[in-house]
Specification:
The chain has 2 helices and 8 strands. Helix 1 packs parallel to helix 2. By secondary structure, it is of the alpha/beta class. The protein has one domain (about 1-145): 3-Layer(bba) Sandwich (D-tyrosyl-trna(Tyr) Deacylase, Chain: A), CATH 3.50.80.10. It is globular, with a radius of gyration of 15 Å. Belongs to the DTD family. Its main location: cytoplasm. It comes from Marinilabilia rubra.
């Protein structure tokens, strides 16, 4: 699993011209799922995400987690995070999991993240064409791949 984590002042998802979901202060996460992903990837990433100290403390030092600041989280499925761009100019998405694999893992990821956060995680709509708005606070953007744990 690969995630792009962005510290957000606010974020929103628009589907069919309507803002359907939004968050305030917290994390906007783009989630890419590949065929080799499973429960171990979910557990490791969720623990890493909720404990990642990327929010400022009273001294302006990034030393607080999303839990510490009572932040919100939005997760949007993003198969293009597994694009292969080595050959040619058209990306290949062969490593991205198909819906029969990715939908259950996406649901499990968001459920596990909701449990770890202690509040409902806001999601995009899997497979929908979405417009995602983000006010990136900082800007702070972190990329984590569960296959690169060391």
């Amino acid at each position: 699993m690969r995630v792009v984590i962005q510290r957000a002042a606010r974020a929103a998802v628009t589907i069919n011209g309507k803002v359907t979901r939004s968050i305030g202060n917290g994390l906007m996460i783009l989630l890419g799922i590949e065929n080799a992903d499973g429960e171990e990837d979910i557990s490791w990433l969720v623990k890493k995400i909720v404990n990642l100290r990327i929010f400022d403390d009273e001294n302006g030092v990034m030393d607080r987690s999303v839990i510490d600041v009572d932040g919100e989280i939005m997760v949007v499925s993003q198969f293009t995070l597994h694009a292969r761009t080595k050959k040619g100019n058209r990306p290949s998405y062969i490593d991205a999991a198909k819906p029969d694999v990715s939908i259950p893992l996406y649901k499990q990821f968001t459920d596990t993240l909701t449990s770890a956060l202690g509040k409902t995680v806001v999601t995009g709509e899997f497979g929908a064409s979405m417009a995602v708005e983000l006010i990136n606070d900082g800007p702070v953007t972190i990329i984590i791949d569960s296959k690169n744990k060391q």
